[in-house]
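Case study 2.
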Amino acid sequence: MGSLNWNLVMAMGQPQGQQQAPFWMQLFPLVLLVVVFYVALIRPQQKKAKQHAELLKSIKPNDRVITSSWIV
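Prediction:
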């Protein structure tokens, strides 16, 4: 019985007098979310990884290195 009611709701379609938003307006929140995640999470991590790689390349033999736990 529940599926019958769902089918009736789906068959009714969109109410009269209301227009559906354009496709790009429906896609805008998703695009905005992706941009925010990129700026807030992905970009800083890439920048940090690049700095770390440059630091590792600059280390020469017999250089003194102190780790984050203060081990020489």
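The helical segments are 2-12, 23-58.
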